[in-house]
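Methods, example record. To illustrate the input and output format used throughout this study, we show the complete record for Elongator complex protein 4. The sequence lines were provided to the predictor; the line carrying structure tokens was produced by it.
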Amino acid sequence: MAAAAAAAGTGGQTLGRSSFSRAASSKTASSSSSPTASGVKLGPNGAAFVSSGIPDLDRILGGGFLLGSVVMVMEDSDAPHHLLLLRAFMAQGVVHKQPLLFAAPMKEPRLFLGALPAPVASSKEDTRQRAMGGGAAADGRAGDEGLRIAWQYRKYFGDDRNSSAEHRDNKQEFSHDFDLRKPLERHLLNAQQIECLSTQDVDTLRGLHDRCSAFLFKHQRKDGVNLSAGRIAIQSLCAPQCGYFEKDWEMVSFLRSLKAMVRSSNAVAIITFPYTVLSDSFCKRWQHLADTLLSIKAIPDEDKDLAKLLTGYQDMVGFLHVHKVAQTNSQVPVILEASTFSLKLRKRRSLVLERLNQAPVDGSSGPSSGGASGSCSSSTQGSQLDF
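The corresponding predicted structure is encoded as:
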């Protein structure tokens, strides 16, 4: 009897282990077999990203825009450079066939779709330059150094591994380079699920809230179900053209509700706003509600101090400052290599972001070089530029 009981107990333990292992294996199999949606990239700690439409910005933010987050861009009143980020974000969603909801303070917001840029075929030179950190290279010597280091690593990894990795990246096409001079093909816009809404001459935000709620309801996050990612783009939310311009608390309430709805969905919302029309207290509230906070600053046409301070100043069109980066299910913050980047146009068509590089001090003028360096350092006090 004791032997039979021992045998039964052993059998029970064996049965328990087998059932547990089957459950764990089935759970692992289901999680590994579930494919990702088009244009969605998985990251650590269960994070999922969609591309911002700018490969350099995706690299800076640690993978792109986090699904379920709200991205806010502080506009600059001197130049509409924030539209470059908005167009790239919308064009990337259209290329990935992701549903899009666009709202803007204009009579016909659908006309803005004609300004979306078309993707360009990424050449091997651009792919190699981005792999070596081409955005950080400031001159030819840095590029030659990167080529030499890449050639040294090739001896250890082999050409086959590099070619396969490059083929895999091109096949995924998570992020594209867009030609700002070429509009997106019309058949892509017609075949895509794009909703447009005008916020001009609107007394309340109830209509925009209902449209966003209905849009996000289609992209609710469900375990084990692969849903396509959605994108919401709102241009100049607090613009004076809107009828709800002076209703500050109503706009804050809308942002809180939108953030809650986006957090539980497979979508990303990007909002640009002219922060100069808001009071300081409400501007701080807006910044606090943002998961990812960016700001755009235009460059004056003739700023001799910046021209002496920065390398490649003539090719810059503006600055992008990263104030905050979204993170979910992680206690490790995203450590940025820098917080301020320059906006440049590669070959006058593709938007790139580069770290700021300080120009070398010219010591040919003798004793006067010390005074020049002193004036240069004094001019940078209180500046947001960092190196």
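Annotations derived from this record:
Residues 126-174 form one domain.
The first strand starts at residue 40 and ends at 42.
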